[in-house]
Amino acid sequence: MGRELRYSPPHLPGTQGNMAEGPLQSCRVTPEEKMNIPTLGTNPFSNIEQLVQQYMTLERQPIARLQVQIGQLNAKISLYSELSDQLSSLQSKVEDLLEEDFFLQNTATSSDTSKLTATAGTDASAGTYEITITDLATAHRVASEQKSSDWTYTVGAGETHSFTISYGSTTLTIELEGGDTGQNYTLSDIRDAINAEAEEQGCGVYASVVDNTLIIEGKLGASNAMSFEDVTGTVLESLDVIDAS
Fold first, then answer.
1. Could you give all domains of the chain from N- to C-terminal order, each with its CATH number?
2. pLDDT tens-digit profile of 86-128?
3. Average pLDDT across the chain, whole number
4. What DSSP string describes the chain?
């Protein structure tokens, strides 16, 4: 709504009336003038905040476009990487196909793989072959005398008792230490000492305890037959693994 402004001049001596008639009798804001007056609402700062938000939104648009482009480029990089891996795998398979012996490979099968396995070279002749097995290779196995459940072997204080297990060109030396006060070794202790040394040497000797009996087992084949010797002390003799001399 327009506002009406009225002006009442002061009463001057010698004049009559209040000069109601004159150029300042009435002052109104025209519609054209109202168009030029900015409207800020009841809170003039609300429009400013809105303008700032709009400006910031416009400023962020290039960044948003760049982020979209970065996402698209990352997707392409991932796709190219996957494609490269697949091409490398394909190249490896093609190289295998180009190998001269690839199509010349032969296979051999056994009717009982628990007793016989076989492989065939590239120059093997096709056919069925019969193989008769008269004896199976076995591992050399030695068992001690059965002992009581509370049996122990005593190594005195400051002493070291040792024995050897040999097969082929391999020799294991197992030592039992008495320490400062002496030590009593059970069958399980002796078993653990043998297995620890065998594992350290990487050889095929394995010890176990079954029904209070120490069992020592070697590798397959007659060439791997084991021999035993007490070096110091009488560990093997007390177990009846070797005879008393």
1. 139-238 (2.60.40)
2. 998 888 888 877 765 655 567 777 777 766 777 776 666 776 7
3. 78
4. ---EE---PPPPTT--S---SSTTS-EE--HHHHHTSPP--SSHHHHHHHHHHHHHHHHHHHHHHHHHHHHHHHHHHHHHHHHHHHHHHHHHHHHHHHSTTGGG------S-TTT------TTPPP------------EEEEE-----TT--EEE-TT-EEEEEEEETTEEEEEEEE-TTT-EEE-HHHHHHHHHHHHHHHT-S-EEEEETTEEEEEEEESGGG--EEEEEES-HHHHTTSS---
